Amino acid sequence: MLRRVLWLVVLLTAPVRAAELDICFNYGCQNEARVSFEDSLIERQVTYVQQAGSAQDERRRLAEVVGLLYREAGRQSPIHADRKGDYLDEGVYGKMDCIDHSESTTRMLAMLEASGAMRFHRLIGQQRRSFLIFQHFSAALEELEVPLARPASVDPVADYVPYLLVLCDCEDLIAKQGTDMEKTSAVAGRSVELPRFVIDSWFVEHGEPAVILPLGAWLGGEGPNVQ
Question: Residue 32 pairs with which residues in a beta bridge?
Fold first, then answer.
């Protein structure tokens, strides 16, 4: 009993660390730079994405947040020199090809997903399209059949609460942990083909919102002309 209460105290009082990511650059992820994002920055972006009212709105917000995270990463690494496509930044240290972008954007989206930002989508594996000898990669999302419930609002914990928890008989409180955030899931036993989309940051200038395209259209060659 005491061990469970102490675990809860540690959970409530432990400081939140800044998120760190490795960003790929110089084509084919030959180089990586570790960047950090302040807790307050990530919290604001997670809240912004959580406020989406639809799957389409959530994709738009995610694309904007990806651009913002690239701008912050560019303040800490050479990728600020990156340009859209592969030709405008040829020979520049810090340039990024589609492999660098697909890997880095996937890592950003995974961080946002782990932070509870997404209600209407889940992150899936990177996608590849091919034309003759040319290949192109992108991060991708799958739309959920049933959106997750909105996260319950949590009031700040007063400084004295952890100490009171140690002294109280909190069996009911502890048993309640994990049940406050309702989640819904798709109906089992049905095979449903869910919409998929790419979040492709290779198409845009550094720090701009990523391009969103239905996966089928992207596989068919759609996207801005950056050559």
Answer: 24
Token pair listed for 168? 């109280």
Q: What are phi and psi of 41, to 5 degrees?
A: -65, -50
Looking up tokens 């609002």, which residue turns up?
153
Query: 116, exposed or middle or buried, with CB in 10 Å at 0-12, 13-18, 19+?
Result: middle
d(CA 212, CA 128): 15
pLDDT of the chain, 227 residues: tens digit per residue = 555 444 444 444 445 467 899 999 999 999 999 999 999 999 999 999 999 999 999 999 999 999 999 999 999 999 999 999 888 888 899 999 999 999 999 999 999 999 999 999 999 999 999 887 789 999 999 999 988 887 765 455 455 444 444 444 544 433 433 333 333 344 455 667 899 999 999 999 999 999 999 999 999 999 988 77
Q: How many residues does the chain have?
A: 227
Cβ atoms 142, 129 nearer than 8 A: no
Compute the distance between CA of residue 9 and CA of residue 221 in angstroms, rounded to an integer.
53
Maximum distance among all alpha carbons in the chain? 69
